[in-house]
Specification:
- This protein is α/β, with parallel strands linked by helices.
- It has a single domain, classed as TIM Barrel (Alpha-Beta Barrel), CATH 3.20.20.
- Helices cover 43% and strands 17% of the residues.
- The protein has an eight-stranded parallel β-sheet with strand order 7-6-5-4-3-2-1-8.
- Helix 2 links the parallel strand 2 and strand 3.
């Protein structure tokens, strides 16, 4: 398995052994590679941390690979800044994970996605099944997918750890081809709760082995900077809305 969204680097002194323990744990779970994602302000030092982390893995004979990814807090303020400062986004990554503040209604997201795609970067909307806006306005997610956005769900949502509403929405998104990648968001603080394998088991049981395999292949393609397989998205009927707001 490949996990495209983690925060696994030992970026403070004294956590090297914890990193080694976490890496071994992930390998035992069946993970062979992870991407660690931080905002652009830390990208310069992140490269060094990634290099050191991979050397540590090699020295300890741990068959795990770490690469750096790109994540931004896709807030209204960020969207406005990008309009006037196009170098705010890096150009070396094919994919960018967008975390949307839960307190914001992302009316600005359509324009931001367009601007990002102009730089030939594929936006990944992270964990919409946990966002109040997308729980109530699933058609909005459908429209973003139609425009080329990739959707990443939390493995914790799939197994029910983020609540019944998040799980129901996540499974609906999968059923209607509105989800493309599963990731854990794991860190050194919670790696023992890593749930990616469990999530794939749930998807296999509830949606079929073919669906689980497609999601795993998409994670690998994303990790390698390749195009993913996106089935034609389907609208979710209003009668299936959660109706919790």
């Amino acid at each position: 398995m490949i996990d495209i969204y983690t925060h696994m680097l030992p970026r403070v002194e004294g956590r090297k052994q914890q990193f080694i323990d976490a890496a071994r744990y992930l390998v035992n779970q069946g993970v062979k590679a992870v991407a660690t994602t931080l905002d652009k302000e830390t990208n310069t030092s992140l490269s060094l941390y990634v290099k050191e982390a991979n050397q540590t893995l090699k020295d300890n004979h741990i068959p795990l690979t770490i690469v750096e990814g790109t994540e931004v807090l896709a807030s209204r303020q960020f969207a406005a800044s990008y309009r006037h400062q196009h170098d705010i986004l890096p150009s070396h990554d094919k994919y960018m994970i967008l975390t949307i503040p839960t307190q914001e209604e992302p009316s600005y997201l359509k324009d931001l996605l367009y601007d990002i795609q102009l730089k030939e970067i594929v936006p990944i909307i992270s964990e919409p099944e946990r966002h109040p806006y997308f729980l109530e306005h699933k058609d909005g997610l459908y429209k973003f997918v139609k425009k080329g956005a990739v959707i990443q769900l939390s493995s914790d949502s799939i197994i029910g750890k983020n609540g019944k509403h998040a799980k129901k929405a996540a499974m609906q998104f999968i059923e209607h081809n509105l989800a493309h990648v599963i990731a854990s968001g794991a860190s050194l603080d919670n790696y023992k709760q890593h749930s990616l394998r469990q999530a794939y088991d749930v998807i296999t049981k509830e949606k079929g082995a073919e669906t689980a395999q497609l999601l795993m292949e998409n994670a690998e393609a994303t990790f390698n900077g390749q195009g993913i397989h996106m089935l034609p998205p389907e609208r979710i009927k209003k009668t299936k809305f959660l109706g919790i707001f």
